[in-house]
């Protein structure tokens, strides 16, 4: 760059030797314009504009309204967006999100992680179930119920389940319902008294069904939540978000 400026200075000096005529004056003006452009600061890259945006990718159901409102109030220069995704960690890896809010366990290899508290598990039972009037149930209370999920998703229930012991093994009732890949389909069967599911409370609350009762499950550890963000020095906005989240949970 220094060499280029020196050469342009010489060009300006040569051009000035021909000033005094319309052609010479035009040459001087052009040479001076080139010299001024070379010494002007480079424009900021277009990607810098992304600094005005902040995207949060969060697992469905995790409540974020209070946190996002507080963060947006403290950072009015940012346009804050929340997207709901089961692949929040992937969104952070690809740069589609600044922060991911996930339920653990999750595949977070290569990402920085901060605790985001815990949430309670609840059992979803048909509204007419004999246990539905309680505020909570134990895993032993649920042992004779049929679990509509993969038993490996709730190993504490699996160890007590009557249908997974003795001659009942291999005859689980779910075989009659076919594959139930979503919570919505599972809750349809719950409402019909065909089984139960055990899920985080925020997930259950997001469904908003009135024909299903949700009871806290005693003896089942709370589900841990975490914030995930890209490795390396974080954006100041990410630091501010994680610090605010720690204070509100």
UniProtKB/TrEMBL annotation:
InterPro entries: LysR_subst-bd
Key words, A-Z: DNA-binding, Transcription, Transcription regulation
GO cellular component, one term: protein-DNA complex
Domain LysR substrate-binding residues, every copy: 64-244
GO molecular function: DNA binding; DNA-binding transcription factor activity
Family under the similarity heading: Belongs to the LysR transcriptional regulatory family.
Protein name: LysR substrate-binding domain-containing protein
Organism: Subtercola boreus
């Amino acid at each position: 760059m220094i060499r280029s400026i020196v050469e342009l200075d010489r060009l300006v000096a040569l051009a000035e030797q021909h000033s005094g005529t319309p052609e010479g004056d035009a040459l001087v003006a052009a040479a001076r314009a080139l010299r001024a452009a070379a010494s002007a600061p480079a424009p900021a890259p277009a990607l810098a504009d992304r600094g005005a945006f902040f995207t949060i990718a969060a697992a469905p159901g995790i409540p974020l309204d209070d946190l996002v409102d507080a963060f947006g109030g403290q950072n009015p220069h940012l346009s804050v967006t929340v997207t709901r995704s089961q692949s929040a960690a992937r969104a952070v890896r690809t740069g589609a999100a600044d922060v991911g809010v996930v339920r653990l366990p999750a595949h977070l290899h290569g990402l920085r992680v901060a605790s985001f508290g815990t949430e309670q598990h609840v059992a979803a039972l048909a509204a007419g179930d004999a246990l539905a009037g309680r505020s909570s149930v134990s895993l032993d209370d649920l042992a004779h119920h049929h679990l509509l999920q993969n038993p490996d998703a709730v190993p504490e229930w699996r160890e007590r389940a009557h249908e997974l012991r003795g001659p009942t093994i291999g005859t689980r009732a779910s075989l009659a319902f076919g594959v139930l890949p979503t919570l919505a389909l599972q809750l349809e069967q719950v409402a019909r008294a065909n089984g139960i599911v055990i899920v985080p409370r925020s997930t259950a609350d997001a469904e908003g069904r009135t024909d299903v009762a949700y009871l806290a499950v005693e003896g089942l550890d709370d589900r841990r939540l975490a914030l995930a963000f890209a490795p390396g020095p974080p954006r100041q906005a990410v630091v501010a978000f994680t610090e605010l989240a720690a204070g509100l949970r």
